[in-house]
Write a structure and sequence with these properties.
The complex is a heterodimer of chains A (290) and B (101). Chain A is an alpha/beta fold and 290 residues long. Chain A is built from 8 helices and 6 strands; from the N terminus they run H-H-E-H-E-H-E-H-E-E-H-H-E-H. The mean pLDDT of chain A is 90. Helix content of chain B is 13%, strand content 59%. The chains are: A alpha/beta (290), B mainly beta (101). Strand 6 of chain A pairs parallel with strand 5 (41-45) of chain B, so a sheet runs across the interface.
């Protein structure tokens, strides 16, 4: 049986490991709260935007806009993959990577060329060998702001308008709760109108003045919608990452607690058996002297 | 003077909410002046300075590209970014910060 000193050393390392996992859990909880608050504010904004979108996107010009009409034939596709920059968050990145890799295999045949853009290093590291990398948006994944969403949104919308790509898809983890995130892939461009806004009452043009005139306004509007959807996805990705890490670190902490219990018991047994051994030696030594 | 309700929102925060007498915004197609009971309007606003007149005095906001929706005596400005500034000079500085991005 190992000496109880070995168990003591192991218990000391478990204690420091517990400090790390416990702290990471608390940090993630704070970051999760911050990300969720940001998401709520963004949802309020998108809600207002949705009201307005009802008026603009119900116009007949909107249905025929180049950002809305599906292109045929589809030649080049772009997939934007959002993931975390860091690991230690359970299956958060792995699930998304698996889902995206499967999508790439299934959809590759539809495109002449399929490229991917990455936001978050984890998915980049896992998928760079499977798909041609267009570019990497660095440093936004953990704490995204709207400016980052605008930068990415304008970049891909310009590329779409310049006909470099005929379809743009977005892969991210949809946030349900700290325990559950679901990988999804949505079409970003052409804009699917049914998800963008509920149609407003007929004849909105009669009620509303538009400035500038409808076609230009529609384009500005659709560009904005793309950025808003990206922003929402980035926020869900960040919230999901912190939630997943919080859950992972919580179960890591309870694993450490279980191990601590087990090793404490083993250490006590070892100590007791060494004491017993010493006693036997002393007693048998004393017996021999009689 | 008659007032209307103005809300200035960005995806990240509520910048202003309150009753105002008038609003002047730099529209994409020209300057927009809004008073109470304006006809329903949807306008794109470019980067510039927003003047707001209230009973208590004037307010200035430096805004990035945005949409202004006026409907039923309420106006909502949905901006990419917006900050309240002390005067026009401060607004210019805020713009330069926005352009630098």
């Amino acid at each position: 049986m190992a000496s109880y000193r070995i168990y003591n050393a192991r218990l000391a390392s478990l204690r420091s490991m517990r400090r790390v996992t416990k702290t990471m859990k608390m940090v993630s909880a704070t970051k999760l709260r911050r990300a969720q608050a940001a998401e709520e504010r963004a949802t309020r904004f998108s809600g207002r935007m949705g009201d307005v979108a009802g008026h603009v996107l119900a116009l007949p010009e909107a249905r025929a806009h180049e950002f809305v009409l599906p292109r045929a034939p589809v030649r080049n596709g772009l997939l934007i993959v959002l993931s975390a920059d860091k690991g230690l968050c359970g299956g958060f990145n792995a699930n998304l990577v698996r889902f995206a890799a499967q999508w790439i295999e299934e959809q590759r045949a539809r495109f002449h060329k399929l490229r991917a853009a990455f936001c978050g290093r984890r998915a980049l590291a896992a998928l760079r060998d499977r798909v041609e990398v267009r570019n990497v948006y660095d440093g936004v994944a953990a704490r995204p702001d709207f400016r980052a969403a605008l930068r990415i949104g304008r970049d891909v919308t310009d590329a779409f308008a310049a006909r470099q790509y005929d379809e743009v898809h977005l892969a991210y983890n949809r946030f349900h709760s700290a325990m559950s995130q679901e990988p999804v892939i949505e079409r970003l461009l052409p804009v699917p109108l049914d998800t963008a806004a509920a149609p407003a009452a007929p004849g909105p043009r009669a009620e509303h003045l538009f400035e500038p005139e409808a076609p230009r306004l529609i384009e500005l509007f659709l560009r904005q919608l793309v950025c808003l959807r990206l922003h929402s996805a980035l926020l869900q990705n960040a919230a999901g990452e912190h939630g997943a890490r919080m859950t992972a670190m919580d179960s890591a902490t309870s694993n450490v607690d279980n191990l601590t219990l087990r090793y404490t018991k083993l250490r006590n047994q070892a100590r007791q058996s060494s004491i017993t051994g010493e006693l036997i030696e002393i007693i048998s030594g004393a017996e021999a002297l009689k | 003077m008659a007032t209307f309700h103005l809300t200035i929102l960005t995806p990240e925060q509520v910048v202003f909410e309150g009753d105002v007498e008038s609003l002047t915004a730099p529209g994409v197609a020209g300057c927009l002046g809004i008073l109470a009971h304006h006809t329903p309007l949807l306008a794109a606003v470019r980067r510039g300075v927003l003047h707001v007149r209230r009973e208590e005095g004037r307010k200035y906001f430096a805004v990035d590209e945005s949409f202004l929706h006026v409907n039923g005596n309420a106006a909502v400005l949905l901006a990419d970014a917006a900050v309240e500034v002390a005067d026009e000079h401060a607004a210019r500085q805020a713009h330069e910060a926005m352009v630098r991005g």
